[in-house]
Amino acid sequence: MPLLTILPSGKTIDAAPGTSLLKAILDAGEQLISKCGGEAACGKCHVFVIEGRKTISKIAAAENARLDTLVGIGSKSRLACQALLGTEPVTVELLGALSG
Ligand code: FES
């Protein structure tokens, strides 16, 4: 089973545990803006984690603080640059115009 499924396209990619969601999403050929280079500073990489939230890395203070500044945040929100894949399958939803 692929480690990561990306919605709405349904693309899947196998990625090593410890890979950031941002890197895996870009490696899959999907578009995701990362203006700050993955420093939890721009908020452009906001995604929803639909499945597998427990297997990815926990939200640290910097991510939490940035998420608080964004529009459209929910309980599934993560910054893809900060969330690291674990060993279980994960499904994310790209938010397009909502992010940022
Ligand atoms: S790339 Fe800027 S917050 Fe994730």
CATH architecture level-2 label: Roll
Strand content: 15-25%
Output the radius of gyration.
12 Å
Instruction: Just give the CATH class.
Output: Alpha Beta
What is the count of distinct domains? 1
By CATH's scheme, which homologous superfamily applies?
Beta-grasp domain
- Tell the overall outline: globular
The total beta strand count reads 5
Structural class: alpha+beta
SSE sequence, one letter per element: EEHEHEE
pLDDT averaged over residues: 93
Biggest sheet architecture: 5 strands, mixed
Distance between the termini: 31 Å
| Small molecules bound in the structure, each named once | FE2/S2 (inorganic) cluster
Helical content band: 10-25%
Q: Biggest sheet: strands side by side, in what order?
A: 2-1-5-3-4
How would you describe the oligomerization state of the chains in this entry? single chain
The stretches of 5 or more residues where confidence is low (pLDDT under 50) are: none
CATH topology: Ubiquitin-like (UB roll)
Total DSSP helices: 2
Folded structure, characterized:
This protein is α+β, with helices and mostly antiparallel strands. The protein has a single domain (4-98), classed as Beta-grasp domain (Ubiquitin-like (UB roll)), CATH 3.10.20.30. The protein is 14% helix and 21% strand. The protein has helices at 21-27, 61-67; strands at 4-7, 11-13, 46-51, 77-79, 90-94. A five-stranded mixed β-sheet has the order 2-1-5-3-4, with helices on one face. A hairpin with a 3-residue loop joins strand 1 and strand 2 (11-13). The longest helix has 7 residues, at 21-27. The chain is globular, with a radius of gyration of 12 Å. It binds FE2/S2 (inorganic) cluster (FES). FE2/S2 (inorganic) cluster binds next to loops. FE2/S2 (inorganic) cluster (FES) is lined by residues 34-36, 38, 40-45, 66, 79, 81.
